[in-house]
Specification:
The structure is a single chain. The chain has 1 helix and 38 strands. The protein is an all-beta fold and 687 residues long. The strands form 9 sheets. Strands 9, 11, 18, 19, 21, 23, 25, 28 and 30 form a 9-stranded antiparallel sheet that branches. It has a 6-stranded antiparallel sheet with strand order 8-22-10-20-16-17, with no helix packed on it. Strands 32-38-37-34-35 form a 5-stranded mixed sheet, with no helix packed on it.
Length: 687
């Protein structure tokens, strides 16, 4: 595969410098606090090092640049020595390389990029690299594991896929981070995935498959579809000829075309009494959205060409890696294989990989090569490719990781991920529609054998369903009993509608569920109606504050689910955070009588602030002379009934605790003593 930005000579400076076409990992960066205001378009040429320090003397880091003038050459230097020249008109204005040096001395080293322009056209950017940097080691990324799709284990695509936009577009289309001018994460951004290999995995190889990693759209609009065996009936034949636009999606090649198969009726009910996961509601023709404004590959503004223009297509970078245990306290990231999805524009690539609407494993499948510099393929041999892979000492689980980054372009690139044993390649088709049919007609034929693919913290979603849909978000165990989750949605607008209901698939909704966004109704976490935007009205914004869910203390396992209407081809994002540090109670205001009577019941109530305090809250009431009364609650108010047994001054004390801290409040009550009742005295004359 021709790499348009890797042109010119490579010169060797200090030690051994190895260039491989590997996009920089976002290095498990923390996303800044989400701001409301937009930022100006990022236009200054930029140079970024990830990481920017290491322990030495052998170092490896990624060199990333963007916003450089394509009409000028770019020179990259290490400590003043030229390392790479990118001639004018051979790059897209962005570049990414992995640099490896050996025998590097301690101290600060300079990485410089400058253009070949002169005068006002000259551009320059400098970053420093430090050796050593305080014992920083490569550590596996942490975060909340988000289930990527309803049928992820089987590899069936029906109601959603994932999608990222290219960096040369605005954030208004549903991807909050990939555009370089993002107000939340300016510059390059990488979505991260964790692939869990369970302890009982009985295979030596894990095959990682990518669905449609390119950003190319086919042109034809007329297609003969085939239906699943379950759905065929006298009124629903085995095959039909359908057209884009008339039978679903758009006939304009720049837009998605997803044909309605008729296996689900107009009300959203599957035919023949089947459930949604037993039928094939959609036939996929085009899944990507060709977008961009200004000169290709896009100027960072919103817009789309009048007709399909592959120069705006997004090149998406996929980096597969793992972490090696080198010593008890030293871990190291090891890149395995990289793949850059094609655009078909004839400049960045020729569009010759057989990936459009197909499931592929780069390097393992003919016609889909891994990028130069990859030490393995996307079929990872656990006995050879993952030396000393970190293993969870409690569960025995092992992990692979996958980074997904929009490298260049402005379009919406849909993709999906599956991982499992490679034992199905001879029988299960790779084309998405043929695969969907085969797997629905042959349940269990493409099982992942327990391998799970999770998005970390953020899931970039593209909805293909216009009715309420039950979406799995998080796998739960008994350890999640009473856990607090904060969940937000980004840019839920086109076709989405309120409310959104969260529930657990092992607990009846009548026992536990939380519904947000009901018009005229306060949200169940205590926020008044109207504070949050509702699905359908959250264009270019996050639900803020995030929905707060406190799981029941009786939880033993299951999945945290969301019932949500996403709309057709609406790109939006999930953010799921398992709260580690809870918001503590600050004050508990006790109200009750200032005096009482022996034998009479009095009620004392407590109101805990702030309203954002995290649950569960443990209320411990202590009344003089009585046993403590303990309650665990998901409410910010609690009360206790007290029957006084003696006179005198008594105190009512309350301790409120949660995972974030505790407070103690005391109320003094004066008890008057025993009350005497006097009956009327009737005096009778003596007889």
């Amino acid at each position: 595969m021709r790499k348009f930005w890797f042109v010119g000579s490579v010169l060797f400076g200090v030690g051994l410098l190895i260039f491989s076409l590997v996009l920089a990992n976002a290095a498990n960066r923390s996303v800044r606090a989400l701001e409301k205001e937009a930022v100006a378009e990022v236009t200054a040429p930029t140079l970024q090092l990830i990481p920017d320090c290491s322990s030495g003397p052998d170092i490896q880091f990624n060199v990333l640049g963007f916003n450089w003038d394509v009409a000028e050459g770019i020179v990259l230097q290490w400590d003043g020595v030229d390392q790479l020249l990118l001639p004018a008109n051979t790059h897209s204005g962005s570049f990414s390389y992995t640099w490896t040096f050996t025998g590097v001395a301690d101290g600060q080293h300079e990485v410089r990029a400058f253009s070949t322009g002169v005068g006002s056209e000259y551009d320059e950017a400098v970053q420093n690299y430090t050796v050593p940097c305080g014992g920083v080691t490569d550590a596996p990324p942490s975060g909340t594991d988000i289930i990527i799709s309803r049928q992820a284990d089987e590899g069936i695509i029906s109601t959603s896929s994932q999608s990222v936009f290219g960096p040369n577009i605005c954030v208004h289309y549903g991807d909050p981070f990939s555009p370089w001018n993002s107000p939340w994460q300016p510059g390059a951004y990488t979505y991260q995935y964790r692939i869990k290999i369970p302890a009982g995995y009985a295979h030596d190889v894990v095959r990682v498959e990518l669905f449609d990693p390119d950003s190319m759209n086919r042109a034809d609009n007329t297609h003969t579809i085939t239906r699943t065996a379950n759905a065929v009936s006298p009124s629903l034949p085995l095959t039909s000829t359908l057209q884009c636009g008339i039978n679903g999606g758009s006939s304009n090649r720049k837009n998605p075309c997803i044909l309605r198969t008729g296996e689900v009726d107009g009300s959203g009910t599957p035919v023949g009494g089947l459930n949604l996961d037993q039928v094939n509601p959609n036939w996929f023709v085009r899944v990507d959205e060709n977008r961009g404004a200004g000169a290709a590959p896009g100027n960072g503004q919103c817009g789309s060409p009048a007709n399909y223009n592959p120069a705006f297509n997004t090149a998406t970078f996929f980096q597969l890696y793992y972490f090696r245990q080198n010593a008890p306290d030293v871990t190291e990231r090891v890149n395995l294989a990289a793949y850059t999805g094609q655009t078909g524009d004839g400049v960045r690539d020729a569009g010759d990989h057989n990936t459009d609407l197909r499931w592929v494993s780069p390097g393992a499948d003919a016609g889909v090569p891994v990028d130069p510099g990859s030490s393995a393929t996307f079929e990872v041999d656990l006995t050879q490719d993952t030396l000393n892979i970190i293993t969870d000492t409690t569960t025995g689980d092992r992990y692979l990781y996958l980074d997904v980054t929009g490298l260049s372009g402005a379009s919406d690139n849909n993709f999906e991920i599956w991982a499992g044993p490679p034992v199905y390649t001879a029988t299960v088709p790779s084309e998405v529609n043929a695969r969907n049919l085969y797997l629905l007609d042959n349940p269990g034929a493409h099982d992942s054998a327990g391998v799970k693919v999770y998005a970390l913290d953020y899931l970039p979603q593209d909805s293909k369903w216009t009715r309420p849909l039950e979406i799995p978000l998080v796998d739960l165990t008994a350890a999640d009993a009473g856990a607090i989750f904060r969940i937000s949605l980004y840019d839920s607008d086109a076709g989405s509608r309120p409310p959104v209901t969260f529930f657990i698939d092992t607990i009846p909704e009548g026992d536990w569920s939380m519904t947000f966004g009901m018009p005229g109704v306060d949200d169940p976490d205590g926020l008044p109606d109207g504070v949050r935007c509702r699905p359908g009205s959250c264009s270019t914004q996050w639900v803020d504050p995030a929905y707060k869910l406190t799981l029941p203390v009786t939880l033993t396992g299951g999945r945290l689910m969301a019932r949500y209407i996403g709309g057709f081809s609406d790109s939006y994002g999930w953010q799921v955070e398992r709260v580690v540090t809870a918001v503590p109670p600050v004050k508990a205001n006790i109200t009750g009588p200032v005096s009482g009577t022996v034998g009479i019941t009095d009620t004392f109530s407590a109101f805990v602030t702030p309203i954002t305090v995290d649950w569960p809250l443990t209320y411990t009431w202590q009344i003089d002379g009585q046993a403590p009364l303990v309650r665990v609650s998901d409410k910010t108010m609690d009360s206790v009934d007290v029957v006084w047994t003696s006179g005198g001054n008594h105190t009512v004390a309350l301790r409120v605790t949660n995972a974030g801290g505790e407070i103690l409040s005391t109320e003094t009550t004066i008890v008057a003593g025993t009350r005497f009742y006097y009956l009327p005295l009737i005096i009778k004359e003596a007889q």
